[in-house]
């Protein structure tokens, strides 16, 4: 299973979902006091964005570490 091939599209779709939930939150606040599920609805996509973003952030460093380890391990 290659995570790298689907993590970026997943991250993009999560960002769209997060943006929609934030907009819905502001619209609901304009109508009055929103219910709790509307207020907290941006949190699940936000946490998933955090994890996918951290994974993509760490990819170049992990590749460097793996290549340096492989070169020194062969000698």
TrEMBL record:
The keyword Transmembrane applies. The chain crosses the membrane at residues 12-31, 43-63. It comes from the Bacteria. Keywords: Membrane, Transmembrane, Transmembrane helix. This is Transmembrane protein.
């Amino acid at each position: 299973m290659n995570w790298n091939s689907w993590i970026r599209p997943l991250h993009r779709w999560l960002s769209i979902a997060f943006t929609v939930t934030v907009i819905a939150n502001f619209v609901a606040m304009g109508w009055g006091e929103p219910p709790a599920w509307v207020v907290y609805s941006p949190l699940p996509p936000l946490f998933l964005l955090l994890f996918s973003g951290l994974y993509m952030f760490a990819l170049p460093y992990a590749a460097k570490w793996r290549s340096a380890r492989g070169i020194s391990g062969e000698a």
